[in-house]
Amino acid sequence: TVKADSAHWTGNFSRTIVKDKIKDGYTAMKNDEKLVRTFFEAQGFKEVEISPVFMNEVYKSDQNAPTEYNLVQNVEVKSDDVQKMKDLAKNSDKLAEQGIIFSANPVEYYYSKLPDLRVSLLPEAIKDAKARAEAIAQSSGKQVETVKSVTMGVVQVMAAGSTTDVSDYGTYDTSSVDKEVMITVKTTFGLK
Asked: What angle do CA 160, 165, 166 make, to 5 degrees?
């Protein structure tokens, strides 16, 4: 069982502008960007990545409707302070109070020491494999002798308490702070 020690959060803010007001739209986006930066700084986040403005035409089925464009800027924040990031996401509605159309994605939570943890879990996994092999061997009147080969399988990083969320290719839950890490090993034993 581990706790996430870093978090990653993305979102975007946007405006929809008619074709002949594109210049005004870019001016409004600059103002929105200042307000977004001020909001993040007030929450204690100085390192915020904000992309340039992307412009996409709004699809309309009515051919006579005026041409409109969505102006969008992506926002990305990373932090080792998981609780602070959770609080930031909860407070993002304050941007809407300032008239900013802000769309947030769920916060993603990561455990940075996974490579070290995998190494420390290997002996436990091999010990477990041997205990299972001995139980199987005893039922057939045999004894486990030596390890012939060991291959490490995939790593499963699951939400705590979720033992069914596994995949043949491995899985990495980013939705929860509390996680369970499981590795698999394929071990071949000699029998006597």
From this structure: 115
Exposed/middle/buried for 85, CB within 10 Å: 0-12, 13-18, 19+?
Answer: buried
Give how far Cα 79 sits from Cα of 3, 50, 83, 150, Å: 14, 15, 10, 37
Distances (CA, A) of 30 to 47, 99, 139, 162: 18, 14, 73, 44
Rounded CA-CA distance 5/111 in Å is 5
Section 75-103 average pLDDT: 92
> pLDDT (tens digit, 9 = 90+) per residue, 28-53?
999 999 999 999 999 999 889 999 99
Q: Count CB-CB contacts under 10 A for residue 93.
A: 10
What is the residue type of 140? S
Give the helix ranges, DSSP H, for 69-113: 82-90, 93-97
Other beta carbons within 10 angstroms of residue 158's beta carbon come to 19
Nearest to 159, CA basis, from 144, 150, 172, 141: 172
